[in-house]
Amino acid sequence: MATRDPGEPQGSGAPVHPGEERDLDRDVDPAHPYRARQLAPYRRDAGLHDSGLTGRYPGLRGSGSRDPRVHSSGPGPGAGSDREPDRAAMLNARIAIVATVVVGQLWGLMVALNAWLDHRTGQVWLLLGFQVLSFAIAAAVWLAGPRDR
Amino acid sequence: MARKDAQLERIRADTPVTRRDYLRILVTVSAGLAAGAAGVAIGLFRRHGSGTAAPAKVADRLEPGQAVAFRYPGEDDRALAIRLPDGRLVGWSAVCTHLACAVLWREEDGHLECPCHDGVFDPATGAVVAGPPPRPLPAVRLREDADGIWAVGTG
User: Fold this and answer.
1) Full residue range of the structural domain in which residue A3 is found
2) A109 and A76 in one domain?
3) Predicted confidence (pLDDT) per residue in A3-39, tens digit
4) For the purposes of burial, counting CB atoms within 10 Å of the CB of B129, is it exposed (0-12), middle (13-18) or buried (19 or more)?
5) Which of A143, A145, B14, B83 is the most buried (most CB within 10 A)?
6) Contact residues of A toward B, CB < 8 A
7) Chain A interface, mutation test: which of B21, B26, B47, B98, most A Cβ atoms within 10 Å?
């Protein structure tokens, strides 16, 4: 059974030490319970309270410790895995596309500089068009995901 | 309160750059590269051996095999006027196209040489004969009349 130090202010919580018996409600401030709940997932031992793992295995931390996306232990949503894998894949794909565009732009800038130093002005303007088009593609890919900007 | 602040500070310190941040950074870099290309196209960056200036006298006369160094069109634009052994008069920028060292006329060898990295140029055409320079030397147009030899333009 969890115990509370009578002299300790309610809601302040106690330091986490291996093997220490812990109060599951130590972060809950009755006046502002939602604040405590906001912080609870960020604790180093987040997700381990329910299972009692820290009591049994003090050295064990849940996967994704300190990861703000992790808010529960075990398998299932919120336990260290993406909750929207399709959305994550789209974001990865957009990053890959824009990174490829940027690499192409670096190459184009090198060619443009060489052309300019070689007095091939017409080619420089063509390459400027290429750069602007590349940026337009990158911006469009970025704007395509309003939730992931 | 202080404990909560410390906790929040730790969370902020641990927060990694997210993939959304990477995407935003990449788009910003893309915009910067496009802006850089626009700067190149409008001639924001200076290029040795090009530009315009009033005609400048470089020598009264040159004998075959002789050369004279001068600055044209700007003060930073070193140039060479050379009377080739066959009597032709040629002018080239004397700024190496590799790393902008001074190019020298080697009369005994009959070529232009950059001593920094052993770049060699053909004095008749300005073309690279040997070494690391990536481009030929820019030309300086010369005019010869009764008053002497004049630099009148570039390219």
Assistant:
1) 1-81
2) no
3) 445 544 444 445 555 555 555 555 555 666 555 455 5
4) middle
5) B83
6) 12-13, 35, 39, 42-43, 66, 68, 88, 91-92, 94-95, 98-99, 101-102, 105-106, 108-109, 112-114, 116-119, 124-125, 127-128, 131-132, 134-135, 138-139, 142, 148-149
7) B26
Tokens coding B91: 């002018």
Q: Where are the alpha helices (DSSP H) in chain B?
A: 2-14, 19-41
- Considering the domain architecture, whether residues A132 and A144 belong to the same structural domain is answered as yes
Residue count (chain A) = 149
Site from B33, B45, B99 to mutate, A interface, most A CB atoms within 10 angstroms: B33
Predicted TM-score (pTM) of this structure: 0.60
Q: How far apart are CA B99 and CA B103, in angstroms?
A: 11
